[in-house]
Amino acid sequence: MTVQGFSLDSDLTLDEAMEELVSAEDFLDFFGVPFDQTVVHINRLHIMQRYHDYLSKAGSLDEHDDAARQAVYRQLLSRAYQDFVDSDAQTEKVFKVFRMHEPQTTFVSIDQLLS
């Protein structure tokens, strides 16, 4: 699938244009983020999950216009991709499976101990 970047002159809104995106490469092409195919091939799910995590932390962007949202989406996607250029999936620990064997901290109150 050939994906063209979003244009404010388009008849579609940003959300409508994004509905056609199905792969990590589609998102990267759409937002004009240059990428190495090898990095994406190895880390596509991790990149997209990290992108989702960054979007969740950014909060609601619905009140912004398409141009502002496009800039934020592009910056967050670029950041998510760059995380895996500079590191790897095991180090970044995006998915729970990579965090399962880490030490866990549990809080027990004094009241629970005295009961």
Structure report:
The chain has 115 residues and is mainly alpha-helical. Helix content is 56%, strand content 0%. It has helices spanning 14-18, 24-30, 37-58, 66-86, 89-92, 110-114. Helix 3 crosses helix 4 (66-86). The longest helix is centred in the middle third of the chain and has 22 residues, at 37-58. The chain starts with 13 loop residues before the first helix and ends with a helix. The model has no long low-confidence stretch (mean pLDDT 83).
Give a quick precis of the structure.
The protein has 115 residues and is mainly α.
Which properties best describe this structure?
0% strand; 6 helices; 115 residues; flat; mainly alpha
Fraction of residues in H or I helices: 55-70%
- The tally of helices reads 6
What is the average per-residue confidence, as pLDDT, rounded to a whole number? 83
List the helices and strands in order: HHHHHH
Question: Biggest β-sheet: count, sense, barrel?
Answer: none
Radius of gyration: 19 Å
Q: Termini, distance in Å?
A: 63 Å
Outline, from the CA principal axes?
flat
**SS content category:** mainly alpha
List the helices and strands and how they pair.
Layout: H1 14-18, H2 24-30, H3 37-58, H4 66-86, H5 89-92, H6 110-114
